[in-house]
Amino acid sequence: MTVEKKVGRLKNRSGSLVDLPGIYALTPLSKDEAVASEFLLENMFTSVLNIIDASQLARNLHLTIELLEFSKPMVIGLNMIDVAKHRGIIVDAEKLSEMLSVPVIPIVARTGRGCSSMFNTFADGEHPSSQHFRIDYGESIERAIDEISSLIEERTLNRRWLACHSVFARQPDNHQPHQCGNG
After folding, report:
1. What is the mean pLDDT of each run of 10 residues along the chain (183 residues)?
2. In this predicted structure, what is the pLDDT of residue 158?
3. Of 29, 17, 169, 143, nearest to 180 (Cα)?
4. pLDDT value, residue 12
5. Closest of 133, 116, 141, 16 to residue 74, by C-alpha
6. Which of 143, 147, 171, 141 lies closest to 159 in space, CA to CA?
7. By the 8 A CB rule, do 164 and 179 touch?
8. Per the domain annotation, does 72 fall within a domain?
9. Is 104 exposed, middle or buried (0-12, 13-18, 19+ CB in 10 A)?
């Protein structure tokens, strides 16, 4: 597992790929979570390649929601589909793609199965932006998000995402990941 960011060039030299630590949420409680969060907040990047474990889908979807709400184009690599299938877990990648409005490519990274398709989808740059992905958190939370958003002068990052990041910040004794909204 990566504990620091690693940078490589895409094979077609169309850009760089930054490998960040494997995390479950963007609100940092550990060094690896801090590395990922700081990168997202402090660096310009065009899109996200999110590799998630199909055998632990619910755990991985928390971060996926946060990344979608960050408003960058995304491709999801649905990894370990072989392990999931062995455990009796069948994930409908097409349905998940439809629900999240981003490409979801089944892969087995250990063997390389599906990886070319995933990288080609990612490198072609045609994947949609998640600009319109938004969760309604209910009236009182939405009101708090709107109030905080109106106070943020940030121009490069999504103000709603920053406000939600503040509202849903995890505390050290609360290990449940939370989501942030987009708007």
Report:
1. 71 75 77 81 85 92 86 91 96 94 94 92 72 83 92 80 78 47 47
2. 79
3. 169
4. 67
5. 133
6. 147
7. yes
8. yes
9. buried
Cβ contact 24:30 at 8 Å: no
Q: Which two tokens stand for residue 29?
A: 């409680």
Q: Are residues 101 and 157 in the same domain?
A: no
Q: Residue 128 has which token pair?
A: 């949609």
CA proximity to 23, closest of 63, 66, 81: 63
User: Residue 143 domain-assigned?
Assistant: yes
Its pTM surpasses 0.85: no
Domain boundary among 134, 150, 166: 134
What is residue 170's predicted lDDT score, i.e. its pLDDT? 57
Asked if 83 and 55 count as a contact pair (C-beta separation under 8 A), the reply is: yes
- For residue 176, what are the domain limits? 135-183
Q: 175 is written with which tokens?
A: 């290990």
Identify the CA nearest to 172 among candidates 71, 27, 46, 4.
Answer: 27
In total, the chain counts a number of residues equal to: 183
Domain boundary among 134, 152, 169: 134
